[in-house]
Write the structure tokens for this entry.
Amino acid sequence: MIRADGRTLALVALVLAVAACLPLTGSAYWLSLGISIAMYTVLTTSWALFSGPTHYISLATAAFFGVGSYTTGIGIEYLPYWALPPIAGVLGAVMAALVGLATLRLSGVYFVIFTLGLAELVRQVIIWFQNISGQKGIYVLTKITEAQIFWQLLGLAALVYAAGWAIGRSRLGFALRIIGDDEEVARHSGINTARAKVALFMVSGAAAAVVGAVLAPRFVYIEPSTAFTPMLSFQVVIMALLGGTGRLWGPLVGVIPFTFLWEAISASFPNQTTLLLGVSFLVIVYLLPRGFVGLIEGTRRRMRAREAFA
Amino acid sequence: MRTDAPVLSLRGATKRFGGLVAVNDLDFDVAEHEVMGLIGPNGSGKSTTLNLISGALPPTSGGIALRGTPIENLPAQEIARKGVARTFQLVRLLPSMSVLDNVRAGAVFGHRRRWGAEAETHALRMLKLVGLDRRAHAHTGELTYIDTKRVELARVLASDPEVLLLDEWLAGLNPTELEEGIALIRRLRDDGRTIVLVEHVMDAIRSLCDACVVMSSGAKIAEGTPDEVLSDPEVIRAYLGDDDDA
């Protein structure tokens, strides 16, 4: 098992190293696609760190992402850029802690609804502020290039994988798997279930906020409707489910095909994106209930069984 | 053999669900190395009492103390860490994990916390104790009913509890399994564990318990050795009804 982990780790490092060369191709199209993949990889993998083992479906990604974007948008006037992603991370973690403490005692569906409402709530608050100040959106003007954004996202992805790997090996990771299996057993075994869940939710909230902060310069102009789009939260869930949340690398195998699919949908049917997002969600849930991870492991198991009989 | 201070004591423990008094002003003590049977007809409040002790439910009033420290207001995870471990009336395993990982859960997070190789060795030792060491790497879905109960017992034992709460651990076993089950609990008793067991199987109560508390409609109606309480007219009436009713 440890050898398999080492292999996975080496593979991830190799993929990251190859991916880091992407800007050298000089193609703006591929770089832009690479940024999307890197962004969704971080968002989806960090989402799955929490939601994978606990089965709590969070739709708060957009809330953390938007808070991160606004951290850069507002902060860039006062602070150097490099200070902003860490600040966004702290804000994301604090927000996740508050939300977590308030809602993680609730079971399943209440948590989903609350997290969906959270992005909307923060968005409305910002709109309200803007109505008072008379300002519509914020210009984020920096000298940061696309390639720099891409590398930052790759670094963040490496960080998220490292965190996921460490958590998987820790008491916290074991506690979360127990919580996901049976919360009652977890509590009676001596696990502080609220604390474990909040801790992981903070990791995923911080990561999403940092992604928002890193991407803000790319948008140039940010306003609440783009920074807090609920579409983002749903995309992350769909990609994670498509890949499968049982393994750390699972979300990645969902992100890559979905980014291409999404690219095709946005290019060919710009007015039906929401509809097609919904359809793809249904198809994924019906055909691949456990994602590509489930498909791959199911096939492996069948092959092993066949070998055993042969 | 008994030391003076009880390991577990309940004083006036009461649980109300709206108008229903499930546990009514219950007092009893469990001494070190003692096996205490909690018996009574269905619906008399035995399982609720275990839920109060383990922290699954908070008592409405009254006190519960573990070695003199009040635990009645603590959440279940704190009570577990202080050394009260329980099995569930309907077996609860961790379905996505192997037998060994199920037991490791107890070893890692329980009263005495272990990690890494130490936790694994300890979990294997507990599996051996319940006779399941050969199935350590099996999936929980492949187990027979009694083996699922063994896994749950091993998980609970792995936390090195001060008090073990067994909620109808012998229920639903066939006669052969029942014999094995009773022998297993007798081994725990001989190891000097302190156990509270809720049980319906009279053979088990007679052969395992040092003392019994009999409950009826939420209240304690008798206390003493198994032979004493089982011949008590009030206990017989609680189980079988009055002559008039018959």
In short: Chain B is about 35% helix and 25% strand. The beta strands of chain B are 8-17, 20-30, 35-39, 61-66, 69-70, 84-86, 163-167, 195-198, 211-216, 219-224. Chain B touches chain A through 28 residues (CB under 8 Å).
